[in-house]
Specification:
Elements: E1 5-9, E2 40-42, E3 45-47, E4 49-53, E5 60-67, E6 76-82, E7 89-91, E8 97-100, E9 111-120, E10 126-138, E11 146-147, E12 152-157, E13 165-168, E14 171-172, E15 186-191, E16 196-198, E17 204-207, E18 218-226, E19 236-246, E20 254-255, E21 259-265, E22 273-280, E23 290-296, E24 302-307, E25 312-317, E26 328-337, E27 352-361, E28 368-369, E29 374-379, E30 387-390, E31 393-394, E32 403-407, E33 413-415, E34 420-423, E35 434-443, E36 450-460, E37 468-469, E38 475-478, E39 486-493, E40 505-508, H1 510-515, E41 518-522, E42 527-532, E43 544-552, E44 560-570, H2 579-623, H3 655-659, H4 674-684, H5 692-707, H6 757-770
Parallel strand pairs: 4-10, 12-19, 21-27, 29-36, 38-44
Antiparallel strand pairs: 1-5, 2-3, 5-8, 6-9, 7-8, 9-10, 11-14, 13-17, 15-18, 16-17, 18-19, 20-22, 22-25, 23-26, 24-25, 26-27, 28-31, 30-34, 32-35, 33-34, 35-36, 37-39, 39-42, 40-43, 41-42, 43-44
Helix pairs in contact: 4-5
C-alpha cells in the first residue's frame, strides 16, 4: 500500500486524526472542505496549507507532519526546509510538530512556502521525496482606519441649498478586506450638525442647512471612520475638515447717512471734486464693488464717480456754477452693486439712495473761456504771422475787466490782445504734427485772476518731401548674367503723411532709359525690380554702373526724386552667387577703415609735431631778437660786379650766401640820432663796404627792422651805393657823378610816385637844409 504523510495544523481548535486537516470549518472526518483548502496525495505524503493566526507573541503549535510509514519507534527524522525555517518556524524532528517561534504580522507577510523531508535515522536516507506546503497567516482586526489626505479643507458658496456636495473624505484599513468585516468602514459625523451631513459608506459631506457667510464664514467638522461596520470591538479613526463659505452677492449696498451737505466755490473748474459720499456693503471682494449715480438733478450740474479703491462716491462738477445765477442745489444719489447674478436679483430689487445739498460760495472769478478747449488746423510751410485761430475769454464779474492773453512757453506761436494766435516760426509737420499749447487769460485790473485753456494745433501736411530709397542698396551683377535677369528689388519711403496710402512710381531717367544696360520694372506695390538689359558684363572694361532712378509719389502736387543705384560687376561662382563679391567688399571696407584710421593717426602726430616745431622756433626767436645785447654782432658784406636791380629786385643776390658767415667784424658802438644817421648815410655813398660808417648805417637799419612788428622774420638789406671796383661795364649810377650835391636838385623825386617818396624825403630835404 502507498505510504501517507499526515499534515496536522491548528487554528484555534483541537487537532483531528488521522489524514485530516483541521480547521474551524471542519466538523467531521468527511466534512466539506473549507474555502482555500487544498489537498494532494503524492508518494505517501498528504500535504496542505496551514493557516496561522497573526499576532502570536509566544511559541505556538501550528500543526504536525507525519508519514504513514512511521510506526512510532522513533526511527524517522523530520526536517523543515525553506523560507522562514529554523528562524520563524521550527519542527520537532521526532514527532513532526511545527511551531511558530516569532510574532507574525499579516500586513508585513501573509504567506510562507516551506518544504518537508523524512529521513530514516538508521540508513540516513530519505524515506520519501521532499514535499512543499504553504503556511498562510490569517488576519485579525488589529489596524484602525486612517484618513489618506489630511488635512482636509473645502470651500462652498454661502446660501447653498441642502444636499450640495462639499467634499469627500476617504479612510483606509490595512486589515484583510476578505476576512470578515475587518476592513469595511462606516463614516459618521461627530461635529458639524445641523449644517452638514455625511454619507456613511462613501464619506461624502453634504450641506444640510443654508448658511450665511456674514454670520459665520467657516466651520470645523469632525468625521469618524469605524471598521467592522461599526460593530462592537471595531477600531476607529477621526479627521477634521475646515469648511469655508465663499461670498455671494446677497447683500445690497446701503447709505448710512440720509443727508449730505457739500459746498463748492463758483470759481471751481469743471471736474472739481466737491465731496464724497459712502455706502456700505456686507459682502466682500467683487461682490462689494458698487456704482454711484445721480438720480435727481434737473440742472445736470453734478456727477458722481466711484473710487474703485475705497468704494466711495466722488461728487464732481459737471458744469460751472455761478453764485449770481444760483447759489444752492439739491440732488439725490443712489448706489447699486456692479456685479449681480440673475439668481440673486431678488436681493437687489430696490437701490439705496441719499439726498445731497450743495451750497455755492461767492468768489472773485477769473476769466472764463467760451470753450473748454480749442482745436485749430494750419498747413505746414505757411509764412511767419499766418493766422491759426482765435480764443476768447470774458470776465464773469460785473466790472467786466479787460483781458490780456499769453501763451505759455511757446516759440512757435504768439497771441495778441484779441486772442488771435499766429505763427512766429515756420511749421514742419514731419518734425511736429501736433502742438499742445496753453493759453492764459489774465484780468488787467487784477493779475491774480487768470485762467488757462488747452489749445491743440494740428499741422496739416503738404507734399513737400519727395520719396527716396528706403535703404542703401549694394547691388551686384554677374559677368555672365543673361538679359532680363533680376538683380535687385528696391522700395521707397516718403516722410509726408498721406490721406490715402502712399503709392510710388519707379522709372529710369531719360538718359539711362536710352543708354542703360539695365531696365526697371514697377511692381505696382511700392517696389520695383532691376533687370539686366543685355547679356554679359566685363569686370575689366566697366566694373561699376550708376543708374538714376526716378521715384514719384501720389501727392498733390506729385514730387519726384532722383536716386542713384550703384551696380558692381561681380566675378560670380558657377552657380551665379554674388556672395563672394559681397565678402570681398566687406573685407576691403574693413581694410580701408584700418588704413583711414592709420592715416588719421599719422596726420594727428604730424600736426602735433608741426605745432611743437613752431613753438620751438618762436622760443628761439625770442631769445635772439636783440643779439647785440648778449653777444657780438656779426655782419657779412659781399661784393658783386653786376649792377643792382633796384628795391624790387629780390633775385639779384643769393640770400643763402648773404647769410653765410665768411667775415667776422668787430662790434662797435653806434650812434642813434636821426640827423647823424642821415649824415652817415650820405657819407656812405662815397665809401666802400669796409667803412665803419657803412657798417653803422646797416646796424641802424637792422635795429629799425627788428623793432618793426610788421616786418617778416628774415630781413634782407640790399645796398647799391658802392658800385664795386671790378665791373667791366663801368658805373651807370648818377650817384657817383662829378656833380656836387649842391648842384643837383632832387625835388623831382616827389613826382615819381610812392616808390621814390623815401628818397625824395632823404635827399630833397637834406640838400635844402645844406643850402
Amino acid at each position: 500500500m502507498n505510504s501517507c504523510l499526515l499534515l496536522l495544523f491548528m487554528l484555534e481548535m483541537p487537532l483531528l486524526w488521522p489524514c485530516l486537516i483541521a480547521t474551524e470549518n471542519f466538523k467531521t472526518e468527511k466534512a466539506k472542505q473549507p474555502v482555500g483548502y487544498h489537498l494532494r496525495v503524492k508518494r505517501g505524503w498528504v500535504w496542505n496549507q496551514f493557516f496561522v493566526p497573526e499576532e502570536i507573541n509566544t511559541t505556538h503549535h501550528i500543526g504536525q507532519l507525519r508519514s504513514d510509514l512511521d510506526n512510532g519507534n522513533n526511527s524517522f527524522q523530520y526536517k523543515l526546509l525553506g523560507d522562514g525555517a529554523e528562524s520563524i518556524f521550527t519542527i520537532d524532528e521526532r514527532t513532526g510538530d511545527i511551531y511558530a517561534v516569532q510574532k507574525l504580522d499579516r500586513e508585513e507577510r501573509s504567506l510562507y512556502i516551506l518544504r518537508a523531508q523524512v529521513i530514516d535515522i538508521t540508513t540516513g536516507r530519505a524515506v520519501e521525496p521532499e514535499s512543499e506546503f504553504v503556511i498562510r497567516v490569517s488576519d485579525i482586526n488589529d489596524n484602525e482606519p486612517k484618513f489618506l489626505d489630511e488635512p482636509y479643507e473645502a470651500i462652498v458658496p454661502e446660501m447653498s441649498p441642502e444636499g450640495t456636495l462639499v467634499i469627500q473624505v476617504t479612510a483606509s484599513d490595512a486589515d484583510d478586506s476578505s476576512t470578515g468585516n475587518h476592513a469595511r468602514l462606516l463614516y459618521s459625523l461627530l461635529q458639524g450638525q445641523p449644517y452638514f451631513s455625511i454619507e456613511p459608506t462613501t464619506g461624502v459631506i453634504r450641506i444640510s442647512s443654508k448658511m450665511d457667510r456674514e454670520l459665520q464664514d467657516e466651520y470645523w467638522v469632525i468625521i469618524q471612520a469605524k471598521d467592522m461596520i461599526g460593530q462592537p470591538g471595531a477600531l476607529s479613526g477621526t479627521t477634521s475638515v475646515l469648511i469655508k463659505l465663499s461670498d455671494v452677492n446677497d447683500n445690497k449696498p446701503i447709505f448710512k447717512e440720509s443727508l449730505y451737505r457739500l459746498t463748492v466755490s463758483e470759481s471751481a473748474p469743471t471736474g472739481t471734486s466737491i465731496g464724497t459720499i459712502m455706502a456700505y456693503d456686507s459682502d466682500i471682494g467683487e461682490n462689494a464693488e458698487m456704482d454711484y449715480s445721480i438720480e435727481e438733478d434737473d440742472s445736470q450740474t453734478f456727477d458722481i464717480i466711484t473710487n474703485n479703491e475705497t468704494q466711495e462716491g466722488i461728487v464732481i462738477l459737471k458744469k460751472k456754477v455761478d453764485f449770481e445765477h444760483q447759489n444752492h442745489y439739491g440732488i439725490r444719489a443712489k448706489v447699486k452693486n456692479r456685479h449681480v447674478d440673475e439668481k440673486l436679483m431678488k436681493y437687489h430689487t430696490e437701490a439705496s439712495s441719499t439726498f445731497i445739498k450743495v451750497q455755492v460760495e461767492d468768489e472773485d472769478e477769473p476769466p472764463i473761456f467760451l470753450l473748454p478747449y480749442y482745436v485749430f488746423e494750419i498747413f505746414e510751410e505757411n509764412p511767419h504771422g499766418s493766422f491759426v485761430g482765435t480764443v476768447s475769454a470774458t470776465d464773469p464779474d460785473h466790472r467786466k475787466s479787460p483781458i490780456r492773453y499769453s501763451i505759455t512757453r511757446s516759440k512757435v506761436f504768439s497771441i495778441d490782445d484779441n486772442g488771435t494766435i499766429i505763427t512766429s516760426n515756420l511749421l514742419d509737420r514731419e518734425i511736429n504734427a501736433w502742438y499742445n499749447l496753453s493759453v492764459t487769460a489774465t484780468e488787467r485790473h487784477n493779475v491774480q485772476q487768470f485762467s488757462s485753456v488747452p489749445v491743440y494745433v494740428q499741422v496739416l501736411n503738404i507734399n513737400d518731401h519727395a520719396p527716396e530709397f528706403s535703404q542703401y542698396y549694394e547691388t551686384y551683377v554677374c559677368e555672365n548674367a543673361d538679359s532680363g535677369q533680376i538683380i535687385q528689388t528696391i522700395s521707397a519711403v516718403d516722410r509726408d503723411e498721406s490721406t490715402e496710402d502712399h503709392h510710388f512710381y519707379f522709372t529710369l531717367s531719360l538718359e539711362d532709359t536710352n543708354n542703360s544696360s539695365f531696365a526697371i520694372k514697377d511692381n505696382q506695390d511700392n517696389t520695383a525690380t532691376i533687370l539686366t538689359n543685355r547679356t554679359g558684363f566685363s569686370l575689366q572694361e566697366e566694373s561699376v554702373f550708376y543708374i538714376s532712378i526716378l521715384i514719384a509719389d501720389n501727392g498733390i502736387p506729385s514730387l519726384t526724386s532722383t536716386n542713384t543705384l550703384t551696380i558692381y560687376v561681380c566675378d560670380c561662382d558657377e552657380n551665379g552667387n554674388t556672395q563672394i563679391c559681397r565678402n570681398k567688399e566687406f573685407t576691403l571696407s574693413m581694410g580701408f577703415k584700418t588704413e583711414v584710421i592709420t592715416a588719421i593717426l599719422i596726420c594727428i602726430m604730424g600736426i602735433f609735431g608741426f605745432i611743437f616745431l613752431i613753438l620751438c622756433l618762436k622760443q628761439r626767436r625770442k631769445q635772439t631778437l636783440f643779439p647785440e645785447k648778449s653777444e657780438n654782432f656779426r655782419e657779412n658784406i659781399f661784393r658783386y660786379d653786376d649792377e643792382g636791380g633796384g628795391e624790387e629786385d629780390t633775385e639779384a643776390f643769393d640770400i643763402v650766401e648773404l647769410r653765410s658767415s665768411t667775415i667776422i667784424r668787430e662790434h662797435k658802438t653806434r650812434k642813434t640820432t636821426r640827423a647823424e644817421i642821415r649824415s652817415l648815410y650820405r657819407q656812405s655813398l662815397q665809401v666802400g663796404p669796409d667803412s665803419a660808417i657803412f657798417r653803422k648805417f646797416i646796424l641802424e637799419k637792422l635795429e629799425e627792422a627788428n623793432t618793426d612788428p610788421c616786418a617778416p622774420p628774415f630781413d634782407s638789406l640790399q645796398t647799391y651805393a658802392f658800385e664795386g671796383t671790378g665791373s667791366l661795364a663801368g658805373s651807370l649810377s648818377s650817384l657817383g657823378s662829378a656833380v656836387s650835391d649842391q648842384d643837383e636838385n632832387y625835388d623831382y623825386l616827389n613826382e615819381s610816385g610812392p616808390r621814390f617818396k623815401r628818397l625824395a624825403c632823404m635827399f630833397g630835404s637834406a640838400m635844402q637844409s645844406n643850402t
